[in-house]
Amino acid sequence: MYQSFKNSKSKSKTICYTVGRPPWYNSHGQMKEAFLIGLCGGSASGKTTVAKDIIDVLGVPWVVIISLDSFYKVLSHEEHLLAEKSEYNFDHADAFDWKLACETLKKLKEGKSVQIPIYDFATHSRLDKQKTVYGASVVIFEGIMTFVCEELLELLDMKIFVDTDSDIRLARRLKRDISERCRDIHGVLKQYDKFVKPMFEKFIAPTMKFADIVVPWEGENKVAINVIVKSIKKQLEKRGFNFRADLITEHEGKPLPENLHIVEDTPQVRGLQAIIRNRDATRDDFIFYSKRLMRILMEKTMSLLPFEPYTCETPQGSSYNGMKLEGCLCGVSILRAGEALEEALVSVKRDAIIGKMLIQTNINTTEPELHYIRLPKHIENHQVILMDATVATGAAALMAIRILLDHDVKEENIYFVSLIMARTGVYTIASVFPNVKIVTASVDPTTNEEYHIIPGIGNFGNRYFGTDDDY
Q1: What is the arithmetic mean of pLDDT over 441-455?
Q2: Of 307, 87, 37, 107, which is closest to residue 195 (Cα–Cα)?
Q3: Number of separate domains in the chain
């Protein structure tokens, strides 16, 4: 069964979407499967445009678009020579690495880390670099033969076929291949007549019967997009997905979680807090007293780590029954503000290894994105202190913890350390990862509409590293 919609004009928009794993879990802390959409249609039928329009109208974060084009097989020397002459059939089902595509989508659906190949159409080859993706709440997999592979077809939660007139597809392909893929018009036409058109009739057109929805697409189809989005939202609601805006109010009326550990509220600690929170504090004072407070915070964290009995011999020849840290310890800072806590960690454990993650908020979606990662070897065997200076909603912290879990770090071996946290951020992390120990010097009551902590400390990174105009 499938539904077909007549075309309706609408204004297209430029959209942004997040690449990264959203840690949406059920009440037992188990990750929900991503919602996987298959988007099929002939070459230049408008699949990517449909995918972006779906994202635009859907209006939720954590959506990833993956193209079947990324999974073209690596060509042999002979096949590469044929491709240079437009004699290689890129439109045959055998041109794709279906095993790799299925393995990748299975991992994405489970929320695991994947490496997406990057294919260069100008040279007919995969590039050495890959794109790291940590999954999403919604994954759109688009390609000319998305419905051809039976194993892949079974993974899809929704199947959409984009039906576009062949003349329009040819015109679009000519424009695209000449301007974007460095082809000449004779090569494009030759390839179209010899491979594209017959392969469409042989492989692609027959798979329309598998589609849940068929979208006629000559420009835009607002009616179809709205129906698709409505169906996706209904499915996401059934699965219980919550998005970042919903996390802000989740903590209201609930006590602070048991896995939260707060530095003792002594006069000294309150005095340090007053200095670094003061908007008129000099940068020298801000750094000096922040370091003092971070040292106290790290000492608190060390007291929570597992220790084991240890007997040593004193200079007098007597035995002393003490304790020593059990196992290995490393730190991971969330760049850039998290780097400020590295000195405090090394001051209490001088041989601690440090890793780094760069997670930044997309200014358009207000959602965190992973841009860089470098973790210590065999991190799964370590107690891990994850460091960030401040936490508002906890979205970046959730991503960072999820990444550590993807690298086989046990949840109970993670200690999330932050100077100041909003109550909503504390509850968000604790509810998703109840076995992660959260350590902070202060829990502030709320956040404002811009997700800033209230009363807060301002932009810690700018104040600490001197990138604020006020300094």
Answers
A1: 83
A2: 87
A3: 2
